[in-house]
Amino acid sequence: MTTTSQPRRQAASFSTLTALLRRSGLLGVTVLALAPAAHADDNQYSLWQQTKDRAANIWNQGDGALYLSGVAHHGRSTYSHEKLNELNEHAWGLGYGKTLRNERGDDESLYGFVIKDSHRHPQYMAGYAYEWVFPIAKTGLELGLGGTAMLMSRQDYFHSVPFPVPLPLASIGTQKAKIMFAYVPRLSSNKNNGDVLLIFGRIEM
Hints:
Blueprint: H1 5-23, H2 28-31, H3 47-61, E1 63-74, H4 81-86, E2 93-101, E3 107-116, E4 122-136, E5 141-153, E6 163-173, E7 177-184, E8 196-204
Antiparallel strand pairs: 1-2, 1-8, 2-3, 3-4, 4-5, 5-6, 6-7, 7-8
Organism: Herbaspirillum rubrisubalbicans Os34
Subcellular location: Cell outer membrane
GO molecular function: acyltransferase activity
C-alpha cells in the first residue's frame, strides 16, 4: 500500500461507515425487543414505529461518543499456536455514535465502527446497544452489563454483504468514559472458530 493511497482508502472507509450508521436504526427492530424500554402500548404504536421513535430519540437527545479500538484477544485454548501467529490482535479502529442515559438510568446507544479485523482487513459495524448501569459505591465509577446487535460487514463472510450479529456487552468506567468489552463466543467445537474478546473505549463528548 502506498502512502498516497492510504488517505483515499481511509476516506472511502469513513464513507462506508457513515452509510451504515445512517441505517443502524433499522436494526432496532430486532434488538429493541430485548430492552425493557421497548414495551409500549401495542394499540398505540406498531413495533416499527416504536423502533423509529426510539432510534430518533437516541440520535437527537443522546450525547456524541467517540469509539476507539485496539485489542482483539483470541482464546488461547481455541486457536492453534500456528493460527495465533497468523492472526491480528491489534484491532485498531475508530467509530462514532450517540449514547442516551434513559429514564431508567441505563445506557442506549447507536453507533458505527470500523476496525482492522483478524486478517487485517476493514470490518464495518453499525448497530444498537443497551446496557444496564450499576454504580460502584461512591467511587464515581459504574459497571455496565447488556448486549448489542449490529450489522457487520467482513471480507471473509458473505462477500462483504452486511449480516446481523448479536453479542454480549460489558463496560466499566465513568458515565463519560468507559472501557468496553464485547465477546464473540466459540462458534463450534472445532479449533480456530470464535472465542474472541474485543476491547475498546467509548468517550462521550
